[in-house]
Amino acid sequence: MSQMPQTQTVGTVVLPARAPLLSRAGWSAFLIALLAVCALAPVLNLLVPEGSAFHMSDYLVALLGKIMCYAICALAMDLIWGYSGILSLGHGLFFALGGYMMGMYLMRQIGRDGQYQSDLPDFMVFLDWKELPWHWALSDSFIATLFLIVLVPGGVAFAFGYFAFRSRIKGVYFSIITQALTYAALLLFFRNETGFGGNNGFTDFKRILGIAIATPQMRMFLFVLTGLTLLGFFLMARWLVRSKFGRVLQAIRDAENRTMFCGYDPLPYKLAIWTISAVMCGIAGALYVPQVGIINPSEMTPANSIEIAIWAAVGGRGTLIGPIVGAFLVNGGKSWLTVAFPEFWLYVLGALFIAVTLFMPQGVVGLVKKLRKGGKA
After folding, report:
1. pLDDT tens-digit profile of 348-364?
2. I want to staple 281 with a disulfide (CB 3.0 to 4.6 A). Which of 12, 24, 94, 328 is the partner?
3. Which contiguous run of DSSP H or E holds residue 267?
């Protein structure tokens, strides 16, 4: 049970001290998740024999790694939608941009091991390209790629957000133009002359930092890295929303005009959280690509961006942990339903979103809180 925050005296005014980042129960749950990602999963996958009932299969490692990437996107959505009141239907663009930055590096790592044994990626040889386009100049450097994973989604988000927020576009109009932006990028990346692989995108990755991707050790390393990134972003988001910056964001969400009357300019606050959210999605996309083994324009489809909002809504927006839970529930169910009942999956997803909107506006986490309060009563 968390302790009550102590108070501190400022002159004759007694102010409440800042509460801890997490309660004791919260830190316990966090440490359990950390041990599960860094110790339990590697042991079950690498050390427990395949014939054992406790063995964690490579398929499950890849599936959970992919879902953790989605959970980062859902957490990013919660920061802008749950705490800032900005509903984006285009965050799939930032996810894909981060994935393409990593995919370009992985394509250069193939070297002459491709089908055409050329220094150029196979799709460029097939399309009769003679040299790399200018935007591939830094793709052979891992350090430069790390910077581009942050700078490209962040730069696009900053430029778009600056003009949108300065024009005070919000509500459904903002959601529509974010989806229009994503769809425009989808059409651009589908074109072969842009140098992004067209419809097929990038695939057939072989190495990262000279180490084979297909080995169990590398796959587990990527799994652990994704888990640590998710946990790190959760702590960062928790710190953000509990800071003065986060409180101003929530004030803007609840009453933007009143917040402006109090002397706060919403533009820098909304632009900052919008850019941070986009960078989080870009990093998630970069972690997603080597684990899944492919990146193509389908990641920018409007449906993918809408699904990110659904994960946040199902789990419970404005809670941080809720969108993570929602990402695992929806994508876990999707993995099962697309195998058992593939023709009904989209109907189930639509019905789930409608049910949550009508009967569980606070999502699964909100429902659990209500049940706990009812039990105590």
Report:
1. 877 877 888 788 888 88
2. 94
3. helix 266-292
